[in-house]
């Protein structure tokens, strides 16, 4: 079980997830002696990278934050109602009828409990194309596609994964804040922190994320990051506007492959804070 779980840390399928950056971020942490820090992700999403660092004891604690209430609710369930969540998953049939039921919860989040919203987010993430909550169901509503609604719902595997994360709950802090507010709070605290900041991407953010950024949002974020006292790494899509916003900082290009119906290889930027040692940019397949 352990070797299988090492390959995949998060129960969420997340577009643009950065778990493949694990060896690079680990190298950065070690070179800059940040092992005893709190690792902070203001845009946590699937948390695959954060969980990997925690489970390998590369950092002492992690702080995961997401302004998306559904994503926050999911992680709240995993950290606070782990066994009940697994029971709910086991009891729930993976059908089109159930998909419509869970979709209603997503569309009316204030009418349901945190547990119900968290599970609905999880259900649609596993059942929808590419894990995108706003996308259609795998296989189509007539289920006449090559793959069916339950093809990403290996309950035995997901149960092991969720249970394993629960073992680390006392080393995980969770919040549901605007990323800018969290970044300010972290920098004003006395806690030794390292921030990995992976915002909604500039070009494709609107098509991938529920809470996407406009150009002015990216500008405000860059301004706040530029005055951070804590060490940080930012990753972005390689766009001229992003290069201009972070022109005073060191940047490294890299590529990751994502599975969004067809495989694509995206050119991206890693931007690194001043006064730190750059990580070794190993080849990412």
Automatic annotation (TrEMBL):
<dbReference type="InterPro" id="IPR012327">
    <property type="entry name" value="MeTrfase_D12"/>
</dbReference>
<keyword id="KW-0808">Transferase</keyword>
<dbReference type="GO" id="GO:1904047">
    <property type="term" value="F:S-adenosyl-L-methionine binding"/>
</dbReference>
<dbReference type="GO" id="GO:0009007">
    <property type="term" value="F:site-specific DNA-methyltransferase (adenine-specific) activity"/>
</dbReference>
<dbReference type="GO" id="GO:0043565">
    <property type="term" value="F:sequence-specific DNA binding"/>
</dbReference>
<dbReference type="GO" id="GO:0032259">
    <property type="term" value="P:methylation"/>
</dbReference>
<dbReference type="GO" id="GO:0009307">
    <property type="term" value="P:DNA restriction-modification system"/>
</dbReference>
<protein>
    <recommendedName>
        <fullName>site-specific DNA-methyltransferase (adenine-specific)</fullName>
        <ecNumber>2.1.1.72</ecNumber>
    </recommendedName>
</protein>
<keyword id="KW-0949">S-adenosyl-L-methionine</keyword>
<dbReference type="InterPro" id="IPR029063">
    <property type="entry name" value="SAM-dependent_MTases_sf"/>
</dbReference>
<keyword id="KW-0489">Methyltransferase</keyword>
<dbReference type="InterPro" id="IPR023095">
    <property type="entry name" value="Ade_MeTrfase_dom_2"/>
</dbReference>
<dbReference type="InterPro" id="IPR012263">
    <property type="entry name" value="M_m6A_EcoRV"/>
</dbReference>
<comment type="similarity">
    <text>Belongs to the N(4)/N(6)-methyltransferase family.</text>
</comment>
<dbReference type="GO" id="GO:0006298">
    <property type="term" value="P:mismatch repair"/>
</dbReference>
<dbReference type="Pfam" id="PF02086">
    <property type="entry name" value="MethyltransfD12"/>
</dbReference>
């Amino acid at each position: 079980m352990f070797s299988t779980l090492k390959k995949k840390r998060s129960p969420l399928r997340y577009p643009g997830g950065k778990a493949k950056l694990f060896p690079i971020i680990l190298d950065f942490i070690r070179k800059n002696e940040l092992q005893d820090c709190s690792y902070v992700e203001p845009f946590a999403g699937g948390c695959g990278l954060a969980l990997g660092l925690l489970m390998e004891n590369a950092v002492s604690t992690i702080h995961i934050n997401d302004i998306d209430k559904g994503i926050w609710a999911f992680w709240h369930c995993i950290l606070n109602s782990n066994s009940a969540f697994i029971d709910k998953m086991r009891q729930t049939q993976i059908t089109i009828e159930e998909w419509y039921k869970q979709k209603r919860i997503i569309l009316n989040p204030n009418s349901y409990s945190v547990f119900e919203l968290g599970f609905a987010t999880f259900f649609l993430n596993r059942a929808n194309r590419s894990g995108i909550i706003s996308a259609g169901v795998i296989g189509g509503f007539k289920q006449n596609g090559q793959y069916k609604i339950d093809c990403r719902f290996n309950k035995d595997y997901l149960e092991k994964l969720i249970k394993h994360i629960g073992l680390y709950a006392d080393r995980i802090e969770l919040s549901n804040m605007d990323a800018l507010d969290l970044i300010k709070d972290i920098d004003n605290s006395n806690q030794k922190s390292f921030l990995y900041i992976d915002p909604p991407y500039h070009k494709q953010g609107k098509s991938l994320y529920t809470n996407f950024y406009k150009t002015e949002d990216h500008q405000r974020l860059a301004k706040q990051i530029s005055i951070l006292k804590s060490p940080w790494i930012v990753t972005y899509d390689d766009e001229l506007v992003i290069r201009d916003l972070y022109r005073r900082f060191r940047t490294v290009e890299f590529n990751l492959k994502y599975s969004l119906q067809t495989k694509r290889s995206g050119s991206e930027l890693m931007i690194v804070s001043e006064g730190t040692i750059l990580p070794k940019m190993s080849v990412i397949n």
